[in-house]
Amino acid sequence: MEIRTDRAFQILDAYCQHRTRLQFGGRISGEEAASIAEVTCVSPIAESITVKLYSSDDDGRSWDIFVPLKGANFSSDQVGDASVEQSEWVPSCHLALYAWFVDGTILFFAEDRN
Predict the structure, then answer these.
(1) In terms of residue numbers, what domain contains 76?
(2) pTM for this structure?
(3) I need a surface site. Which of 18, 42, 59, 97 has the fewest CB within 10 A?
């Protein structure tokens, strides 16, 4: 379901305030990648966020990355929606927030079901 930009930033801000661990990833230039992440800073005015990515090697490493979201269109799916149940990227999530860009880039932020 398509949502307004201000609603997307409200969701991202809630993730930030609650320090929610998310599955974060996407498709950029045809390549897909995903990682466990936390949204650490949200700037609706600048239409950007900062995300902390965690190493999948359980070695305690993490990286902070700046994610510009200016010009993105947003959609969100919840448990029970067919698109969540059948998602290749996010097989077990409660809520998935997607950012779609005109160049074909897609980012997702998925809240774990557990």
Answers:
(1) 2-112
(2) 0.84
(3) 59
